[in-house]
Amino acid sequence: MAQAVSAQRVAAESNFSEAARQALYAGLISFGLFVLFIGLRTDQNIRNELILVQRWGTLAIVVLLTMAGRFLFVAFAQPAIAARAAARAKATAVAAEPGALRKNGTKLAILALFLYPIFILWAVGLQGSLKWVDNFGIQILIYVMLAWGLNIVVGLAGLLDLGYVAFYAVGAYSYALLGTELGWSFWILLPAAGIMAAFWGVILGFPVLRLRGDYLAIVTLAFGEIIRLVLINWREVTNGSAGISGIPKVDFFGLFDFNVSSDIYFGKVFGLAASGAYYKIFLYYLIVLLCLLTAFVTIRLRRMPVGRAWEALREDEIACRSLGINTTTTKLTAFAIGAMFGGFAGSFFAARQGFVSPESFVFLESAIILAIVVLGGMGSLMGIAIAALVMIGGTEILREMTFLKQVFGQDFTPELYRMLLFGLAMIIVMVWKPRGFVGSREPTAFLHQRKAISAAFTKEGHG
Amino acid sequence: MAAQPLLDVRGIETYYGNIRALNSVDVTVDQGEIVALIGANGAGKSTLMMTIFGSPRARTGTITFAGTDITNLPTHEIARLRIAQSPEGRRIFPRMTVMENLQMGASLDNLKYYDEDVEKVFHLFPRLKERIAQRGGTLSGGEQQMLSIGRALMARPKLLLLDEPSLGLAPLIVKQIFDAIRELNRTQGLTVFLVEQNAFGALKLANRGYVMVNGRVTMSGTGKELLADPEVRAAYLEGGRH
Ligand SMILES: Nc1ncnc2c1ncn2[C@@H]1O[C@H](COP(=O)(O)OP(=O)(O)OP(=O)(O)O)[C@@H](O)[C@H]1O
Ligand SMILES: [Mg+2]
Q1: Which residues of chain B have a pLDDT value below 50?
Q2: Which of A52, A221, A228, B27 to pair with B147, CA 20 to 30 A apart?
Q3: Residue range A412-431, pLDDT digits in tens
Q4: Where are the domains of chain B?
Q5: What helix, strand, coil percent values describe chain A, rounded to 5?
Q6: In chain B, whose CA is at the least distance from the CA of A450?
């Protein structure tokens, strides 16, 4: 035992010295490479003369970053990768039972989701919490929900849909229009928006029943654009590109609400000072619940005939037909249920923003949602959640990186590099894990069905 | 006992666009029989199998199964009448496990027989049981064929259609598969209609056979008769697999 520990220590030390050596080399190489590119820059002065600007500081930062990166990679990442490979080699022998962390991972993740706002409140106080709960929490969770909804269509049923944002838009406008015109409550309009979106899912589904792959992708892409153009041009109803504002907030089942002027304002009811943060925290928990609903429904459906038919459809349509599966209804239910969750997310979005306009529903959104599904590993709920966290969280964090201004100059706006980061992350993930974060499918059938199903329920997650 | 054949195909013509792939084809399969259909590549054998299943649809003629006219039924409803098929190219679900593939074959309304049926398939093909959690796409060709047949059996079919079960398999595996078909027929009285390139094996296995040339049935008879027929011998057996 003691021997093993000391052996580990020796291994770690040799790791560090090796890492330091390699970092030095990497630094030298990057210095050699960048000394002319970054260290010196030609520029024009006021008299139009060519001058050399020296940028040793920037060069030093680049070289140091390279060295640090190499050091961290060799010292920590490489041993971790090696250990994982070894563990995997060992694990194949006893692969049947997932590890304790994996088994409880879902529960821990859900617990963390519920504790997150409390932690934020404790850490940065009520006013400071706005950014963390809203920009990070809610923003990421909206994408998690959208991606989980699209996952039903793309990941499970294998129908490549490039126009998913259309259903998001239908949901958002349903709530915006009915909420402002009729003044109905969110709790009535949420299901209504879902049904509306599902209806449009079926409308889209019918003409594309016979299409697959790239043809399907193009038609759905066009569908997404059509919905957006209708929203822009049908001014009498949608108010065109100006959008709809003054969308009512969500209330808590009539017990209290979040309008400062109202009699049942949350702050008044509970004797607290007025603040916008309550609403955001409330919305946060609302979207958490909506996400959990999506996950729960997906997991249940996967084990039911319709869910199994979706997956079979993705694998082989002809085989499906010869097994007596009605491919028409299978496809339509996939479109409808996927669209319904898009509609839920849309009405939530409208309630959160208080304002909707066609600008929120451009093709880029569809592409981002699809990218999250693909990165997460087509079909895996956990993988998709991780992908959303990394991609959306990552781009939000870029906004925070004001220190980059010191490096790259004052006119550097990190947000503009969002898409660059997105692309880069996609390439890296696809090289590193070509099937996405969680590329393996959890089987849903076992030898003794009843026992296996009860076991599968305790295992949950990893849709 | 069988006054009326289980499957009765009469005067079927099937077209791909303007090309006629089947030309007034008549085929009958009686309850409890094994019937083989042999013919050269492109003769229209797979087309006949698929036409029975309603995709593509016959332009003229009628197909009757157990007294029901199925000529114009949608494919999934035909399957619901308990016709099961192991289609050309096996078409198992590659990312699903052996177990899930079998589960997909089980007709959705009689899950009460599920455990029993799974055991039957494993009894027939013990190899599948060893590979129960393996993904279908990683099975060997022979195992995939077993899985394809096993999946079709999960529907508790009254009629089993097999399209080239011996395609690309080693002689030993072919024998195993043919033995399995014979056993199913003997012990459970399963009716089988199979398409084969391996004319010798198929005709030996079958009670009756049909020969198809260019979309027409040109010959029919018992397996023995066809095996002895000089024309059949010349066209499908000499120099072929014996
Ligand atoms: N989807 C299709 N579209 C157009 N022509 C087709 C189609 N499927 C088959 N054919 C044509 O119909 C004819 C019969 O094909 P079929 O697949 O039934 O032959 P087969 O007897 O099963 O041959 P093999 O033994 O090679 O499997 C062939 O000439 C083939 O080219
Ligand atoms: Mg064929």
Answers
A1: 1-2, 240-242
A2: B27
A3: 777 777 778 778 878 888 78
A4: 1-82+158-242, 91-156
A5: 75, 5, 20
A6: B115
Q: Is the pLDDT of residue A96 over 50?
A: no
pLDDT in tens, A98-129: 556 666 788 888 898 899 888 988 888 877 78
**Nearest alpha-carbon partner for A102 in A375, A463, A461:** A461
Superfamily name with CATH number, domain B1-82+158-242: P-loop containing nucleotide triphosphate hydrolases (3.40.50.300)
Query: Best mutation site among B37, B46, B216 for ligand 1, i.e. most ligand atoms within 8 A of its Cβ?
Result: B46
Q: What is the pLDDT of residue A448?
A: 60
Would you give the DSSP letter of residue A130? H
DSSP string, A257-303: B--TTSTTBHHHHHT----THHHHHHHHHHHHHHHHHHHHHHHHHHH
Between A90-94, A396-400, B227-231, the lowest mean confidence (pLDDT) is in: A90-94
Q: What is the pLDDT of residue A286?
A: 93
Task: Show which residues on chain B lie within 8 Å of chain A, measured between beta carbons.
Answer: 53, 55, 74-80, 84-85, 87, 91-97, 99-100, 102-105, 107-108, 111, 114-115, 118, 132-133, 151, 155
Handedness of CA A45, A51, A54, A55 (dihedral sign): positive
Residue predicted with more confidence, A40 or A373: A373
Tokens of B152: 């079709």
Min Cα distance B157 → chain A (Å) is 11
For ligand 1, whether the C-beta of B47 sits within 6 Å is yes
Residue A313 has a pLDDT of 92
**Region of A353 on the Ramachandran plot (φ > 0 left; ψ -120 to 50 alpha; else beta):** alpha
Measured CA to CA, the distance from residue B66 to residue A329 in angstroms comes to 27
- Closest residue to atom 6 of ligand 1, CA basis: B16
In the block, residue with structure tokens 């966290």 = A389
CA distances for A316 relative to A177, B69, B86, B220, angstroms: 41, 28, 13, 34
Q: Which residue has the tokens 């799974």?
A: B118
Computed over every residue of chain A, the mean pLDDT equals: 83
Binding site membership of B44 for ligand 1 (Cβ less than 6 Å): yes
Q: What is the mean pLDDT of residues A31-46?
A: 78
Residue A444 or residue B33, greater confidence: B33
What are the structural domains of chain A? 2-90 (no CATH), 125-432 (1.10.3470)
Please, which residues bridge with residue B191 across strands? B159
Q: How confident is the model at residue A4 (pLDDT cuts 50, 70, 90)?
A: low
E strands, chain B, are 7-16, 19-29, 34-39, 60-65, 68-69, 83-86, 159-163, 191-196, 208-213, 216-222
Weakest-pLDDT range from A191-205, A271-285, A329-343, B136-150: A271-285
**What are the two backbone dihedrals, phi and then psi, of residue A354, each rounded to the nearest 5 degrees?**
75, 5
Is the beta carbon of B160 within 6 A of some atom in ligand 1?
Answer: no
B14 Cβ below 6 A of ligand 1: no
Higher pLDDT, A135 or A356: A356
H/E run at residue A355: strand A355-356
* pLDDT confidence of residue A3: 54
| Residue contact B105–A323, C-beta within 8 A | yes
Angle at A45 (CA atoms; ends A55, A31), nearest 5 degrees: 20
| Contact partners, residue A418, CB within 8 Å, separation at least 6 | A395, A398
In three-state secondary structure terms, A88 is: helix
Residue A430 has φ and ψ, to the nearest 5°, of -70, -30
The beta-carbon neighbor of B93 closest among A312, A446, A447 is A312
The neighbouring-strand residues paired with B211 are: B38, B219
pLDDT of residue A192: 94
